[in-house]
Amino acid sequence: MDYFLQNFPQQLVNGLEAGSLYALIALGYTLIYGILEMLNFAHGDVYMVGAFLAAGAAGVFVHNEVAAVPAGLAVALMMVVAMGGAGLLGVGIERVAYRPLRNANRLAPLITAIGVSLFLESAVQVWVSPAPVLVPSNALVPQTVFHVGTVVTPLTGVMLFVVAVALMVALDAFVFRTRFGSAMRATAQDREAATFMGIDVDRVIMVTFFLASALAGMGGVLFGLRYASVDFFMGYLLGIKAFTAAVIGGIGNIRGAMVGGLLLGVLESLVGGFISSQFQDSFVFLALITVLLIRPQGLFGQPLADRA
Amino acid sequence: MQDVEVRYGPVPALRDVSMEIRRGEIVCLLGGNASGKSTTMKTVIGSVRPAKGSVWYEGEDITNWNTSRRVAQGIAIVPEARRIFPRLTVLENLMMGAFIRNDRAEIDADLDRVMDMFPRLKERHAQKGGTMSGGEQQMLAMARALMSRPRFLCMDEPSMGLAPVLVEQQFETIQQLNETGITIFVVEQNARMALAIANRGYVLQSGRVVLAGTAGSLLENPQMQRAYLGI
Known about the structure:
Shape of chain B: globular
Low-confidence stretches of chain B: none
Oligomer: heterodimer
Number of strands of chain B: 11
Radius of gyration of chain A: 19 Å
Distance between the termini of chain A: 49 Å
Structural class of chain A: mainly alpha
Structural class of chain B: alpha/beta
Distance between the termini of chain B: 31 Å
Strand order of the largest sheet of chain A: 1-2
């Protein structure tokens, strides 16, 4: 028991850090599912490309572990490049791969998404780097480590959590407080009726893909700064876990994805810390199965009949 | 609408349909199930594109315009089965109706106007659309369409699923709207009610116009009486 009490705060902090990344990526799954009712399985790889864009931008500004421009500016530019680049990639994927299939059988876009996912992984592996690429995090952000009581956490971990939560709050405000956000929700509820309002549905879908992918891009930046290394396969397991988080929260529900992500991160960390780190992933998917059995619509989802 | 043919796959749903709705009129479109009524309506609003023929509005060929452009030019629709946004509040639904507009002050004035017209919506403005009764949802669908300040309003089966007293109210509202200068095109199963308020009517059967004329002449027409009026 003493062991548990002593280590619980640390595991909780670790869990919130990982969970905020899951939540950021889960939001993308849920936004796109909400609008198109499709699972964009390439989303984890958009995050990976975002991380590589950030690493590439960092490489331009940092030579021999010394930043050529003020570090704050370099980090800001990394964020712009990664969010903008990932956002455009998402829009491009929708335009090229998903839009032609919009009225096709539901399975077609799903399989296409898996294809896009494999394409992105292979493209980065072959054309960029098969080995992990280092992000010169130590030249860009202070490598301060905070000690609060028994809890130890680096500044980059706190940054990950704070920036992710800030973006979630901003996204929530955009979707629930602005006119365009209302148009997004209207399109999600009844696409044809949205066109009757004069809403340009193609544009709504484009903006949704941009937002979802830009959030993933930011996830890539934060991951790179925290762990100082990115690789072409990093989006695979993370994408699946974020998808799990979105389903646990109730796919299509924005607040559900945020809570689902944080819960999943904490659960994973507690299991890793107190039960077995080898069974960590098994427990994540066990949680998914449990939620699906007890509450198939997810924690925040409406029952299906209500969605018609 | 000229010589319009609409196909779903190889099957034509409308064949050589021509109709004309003049400014200020109420025109009704009658016909049985699967006669092409809803397809006609979708062709007007732009949800389906004709394979042949053209659609004209205020002197312009709008055949290739998408729906949002048509809505911006003053066409609005009260769709079949209402199609309100169930998880937006009543107020948000109404604001979606005004999506194409940017005149905030005028929008607020119109909000007051439609809420005076349908006091029920005012009472329930913060409630989710999907939690209201069928009659209230029909009011909301109508009010939402009015929020775009349409010059041409299409209504697809406005009486469907409503209690008789509400149907009568509904048709009264349609007449009042017409008196404010809105041209109205209404698709109906309830032929008698529709002809009572319409200037002219068209009758569709298997995707073709089989009868057309003033409301009076249709009411008198023996074929019409037998098939749709139950006389």
